[in-house]
Amino acid sequence: xxxxxxxxxxxxxxxxxxxxxxxxxxxxxxxxxxxxxxxxxxxxxxxxxxxxxxxxxxxxxxxxxxxxxxxxxxxxxxxxxxxxxxxxxxxxxxxxxxxxxxxxxxxxxxxxxxxxxxxxxxxxxxxxxxxxxxxxxxxxxxxxxxxxxxxxxxxxxxxxxxxxxxxxxxxxxxxxxxxxxxxxxxxxxxxxxxxxxxxxxxxxxxxxxxxxxxxxxxxxxxxxxxxxxxxxxxxxxxxxxxxxxxxxxxxxxxxxxxxxxxxxxxxxxxxxxxxxxxxxxxxxxxxxxxxxxxxxxxxxxxxxxxxxxxxxxxxxxxxxxxxxxxxxxxxxxxxxxxxxxxxxxxxxxxxxxxxxxxxxxxxxxxxxxxxxxxxxxxxxxxxxxxxxxxxxxxxxxxxxxxxxxxxxxxxxxxxxxxxxxxxxxxxxxxxxxxxxxxxxxxxxxxxxxxxxxxxxxxxxxxxxxxxxxxxxxxxxxxxxxxxxxxxxxxxxxxxxxxxxxxxxxxxxxxxxxxxxxxxxxxxxxxxxxxxxxxxxxxxxxxxxxxxxxxxxxxxxxxxxxxxxxxxxxxxxxxxxxxxxxxxxxxxxxxxxxxxxxxxxxxxxxxxxxxxxxxxxxxx
Amino acid sequence: xxxxxxxxxxxxxxxxxxxxxxxxxxxxxxxxxxxxxxxxxxxxxxxxxxxxxxxxxxxxxxxxxxxxxxxxxxxxxxxxxxxxxxxxxxxxxxxxxxxxxxxxxxxxxxxxxxxxxxxxxxxxxxxxxxxxxxxxxxxxxxxxxxxxxxxxxxxxxxxxxxxxxxxxxxxxxxxxxxxxxxxxxxxxxxxxxxxxxxxxxx
Lengths: 619, 202
Hints:
By secondary structure, chain A is an all-alpha fold. Chain A has two domains: 27-544, Cytochrome C Oxidase, Chain A (Up-down Bundle), CATH 1.20.210; 561-612, no CATH class. Chain A is 67% helix and 1% strand. Chain A has helices at 4-13, 15-21, 25-53, 64-98, 107-126, 153-181, 194-225, 239-273, 280-294, 309-321, 323-337, 346-369, 371-377, 381-411, 417-443, 460-489, 528-534, 557-573, 577-596, 606-614, and strands at residues 549-551, 602-604. Chain A has a two-stranded antiparallel ribbon. In chain A, helix 4 (64-98) packs parallel to helix 6 and helix 5 runs parallel beside helix 18 (557-573). The relative contact order of chain A is 0.11. Chain B is mainly α. Chain B has a single domain (17-42, 66-201), classed as Four Helix Bundle (Hemerythrin (Met), subunit A) (Up-down Bundle), CATH 1.20.120. Chain B has six helices and no strands. Chains A and B meet through helix 6, helix 7, helix 8 and helix 19 of A and helix 1 and helix 5 of B.
């Protein structure tokens, strides 16, 4: 076995190969976040194009067909390829560190999940160049999404998201097992940091929400490719089946998008208030309750499909109930700040900006949950305003809070605060300018998903302001990108424990060693690192003697397996059976290789740990 | 890493952290699979009377054949239990033998299912005939492909470990394959009740 230093020099020679074969959760985290940011920018460009088209009444910046493609790709990209992967990236970066683990439970599967997401996303976006993007909306309602539409865009949608979805499911299972089996000594469930709790519960949502989507995509795929009749009314098919399946996935999905953001807030706000989180156990319970109720309310997306007053009432009341645990959370964050020694670096600005923005989204959610009133709001811009307040004002603000907060941990550098504040204020103001007027546009009757509107209906001013706001959000995002480039091109390494953190991820050297903890830490309570600091210790008390650390081997197979699916998908789309079979065969061959070749990993010897630990910049 | 059979702990499949992780991971995977099959069952139950003029469930299903298939699959579940019991006795030969029997039973189940499907298509119950047919073949086909995957999985395990001793590295792999095999048998019990029995009763 090579020594540690030899391995380091070896790695420098082939950095690209190292990144392509990595099974290290910290590198996977970076790849998730970078790919997610790339798709976030792509989805943002699509959003700006949509808003330009709606700048003036009867404007013809893009055609109606292109507009349909833009709204479909914007929604799909932002949800599946931007928000969720960035959250998975943050989970990968933080959860193993917060529970004091050396790794995730399944490093190989973790890498497979990453590459499936990347290739699924690439496949979906290939549609722009190879026959037209999908155009049936991100919900892909049948029969708009079946052969009725004619273009091949939906093929890319079905197969691209199917592949990415497999990856997400693997991520979910991985985090469930990691959190249950790999917590450090003393880290009981009720001592786990809130972000880990949120990630854990989100993973459970992924586990039960994604399989229905998998089936939905298979049914749609069979209808499109093999002539089945699930959604073809002539042969007994039923399009409402699609709506049920989609929203049984789709409603939990919005909690998959918001619970990690709640978790991030519950880390950022206590750190910058120098107080422990108010009502920790209530927060845990509220998170679990929100997740549970999230599965019970899917039909509130279908009030107007004619389910009848009894079903509508049940789903309306179940939906309203979610406001209770969510309200608990909002108050707990406020009480955490109350009386704290508040600081407002950019991370905390995003966290505090989240609270009123998300609250507005929550309140319009209550309005929409009233079934009779929903008959008025349904498919208007009011709904667009509502879910953007929740997803942008909630998830995206949470993502930015998390990125600014954990950037030093992930990249060993601290993002520039001045640019960060510019980013926050332009984006925050732009956000409210964009989406606040949309509530009123909706109440005045402007429909969603329609590519233009007539003049003289008092819709001009609202749309104009909304588009200007979108430009401002674009400026904010550009400032963020500039910040990233400037920060990463500087040599300055972040300080050890830069925010005076409370949880375990701040107790290890910067940059994070590949084995995370040389010795597993002994956890003595909630906010484990804070307890040690209050006891006058600079580092965690170890729970074990220094010993060799077992590490998993890297592998190129995850990338090859994802590539195989990618190839097979093109075989299906262009109807070349040979290519489809080749791709699937190659996938199963890789699987076979993985199962028959022994992979025992390797050890880092304890003599190699000591020098790294000593120069780790600990005070 | 590899230990000789004589020094194996009482539960070699859960002796290492890796084994424990795999054990829990497979249970969660099966949880996801439950949601997956539940969606298929829901779709089937919603569309089972939408036969668009094609043959109905009552006209098609022949219970004696399905009964034989059920027996084969349930017996295969038992043989996989015998394999795991052999593992507890550290008897690698019996372990491999019972798993080979399990695979043979699985393959004969698939053979009967192919025969059944072929028979149905001759009676005008093609995949593209109606929503009922699409839902039927998708549910049954998903289950059948799970059986086929299980056969391939167990075969790969048997080939890889044919000349190796039982250790804490391969014990979890055998144990997991047997858990998976039980799961697809349980799904079949639901198919037998909700598709065939309900179909014949009407």
